Amino acid sequence: MASSILLSACILAGVPCLPFAQREAWVTPEVKTPGVIYRTFESASAKQLVSYHLYRPKAYDESDTTRFPVVYWLHGSGGGLAGIPALVRHFQSAIDDKKVAPFLVVFVNGMPNGMYVDWKDGSVPMERVIVDDLVTHIDATYRTLANREGRMLDGFSMGGYGAARFGLKYPDKFRAVSILGAGPMQADLRDAPRAGRQRANAILERVYGGDPAHFLAVSPRTLATKRATEIRAKSLIRIVIGDRDETLPANRDFHEHLETLKIPHEWIVLPRVRHETMAVLSALGDRNWEFYRKSFGP
Which of 97-111, 116-130, 135-149, 192-206 is the least confident region? Predict the structure, then answer.
């Protein structure tokens, strides 16, 4: 059922469509760009090698003892490899201009449609691979500030949804949560303004077992309700969305949900900005680095 729906959606879109098993890979190709290394590690949850890319600022190699905070960057659907070079230039420029102190960036392999959640059928333990295995590996391998105050989640689109999920579910592991152009933030995946009904139904079937109740149970909305007291006390949160982004209504509804729960957060709507990663970051300007400075402050 899911395969036929997905195939139909790909035909309508005019793009190649491989089965999920072929498209969702734990090891990606390498992206070569200055300041970035490509590595794999043995994941206990996936029971195989998993890849990631890591940006190390120049200051990392200038000291043998300094420890650095870590940003876990979660990409959007379709995979995030193509966006790594532009993001690295963005981060490096801000560090060079002393708008923010140096930090590491882990470019997570969230698969093209991994959704940053453990799949209901158990075939893809995405959440456990990242939150349990990858974070542990990074802290053991690099000079990190290995505590919640040294960890930030940032991500766009599907990655914003993932950042919200992880940050609200694990406030003891991640202090700061940046939610950019996030989706799907609605209560029902069958109502998907960007994905379209056919593709959304295929993802609902494959990732969430075709169960709308399960999709809602693991959603940022439900996680915020369950952990509201702890989140209020510990977490630094922002939600950023362009006013020309189709996901604006769902993000506004989520912002209002957090307000109802009395969870402090920044709510930023960017004028004349569509659903584009670098357009969002460019429009944020220095406000982006203000949030980073707060996140990694004393």
Answer: 192-206
The candidate with the shortest Cα–Cα distance to 160, out of 178, 173, 174, 144, is 178
Q: In this structure, what token pair is assigned to residue 3? A: 């395969």
Report d(CA 152, CA 173) in Å as an integer: 9
Q: How far apart are CA 202 and CA 208, in angstroms?
A: 10
Q: Round to whole Å and give the CA distance between 92 and 240.
A: 22
The model scores a pTM over 0.85: yes
Q: What is the mean pLDDT of residues 33-46?
A: 98
Q: Write a three-state SS string for the chain.
A: CHHHHHHHHHHHHCCCCCCHHHHCCCCCCCCCCCCEEEEEEEECCCCEEEEEEEECCHHHHCCCCCCECEEEEECCCCCCHHHHHHHHHHHHHHHHCCCCCCCEEEEECCCCCCCCCECCCCCCEHHHHHHHHHHHHHHHHCCECCCHHHEEEEEECHHHHHHHHHHHHCCCCCCEEEEECCCCCCCCCCCCCCCCHHHHHHHHHHHHCCCHHHHHHCCHHHHHHHCHHHHHHHCEEEEEEECCCCCHHHHHHHHHHHHHCCCCCEEEEECCCCCCHHHHHHHHCHHHHHHHHHHCCC
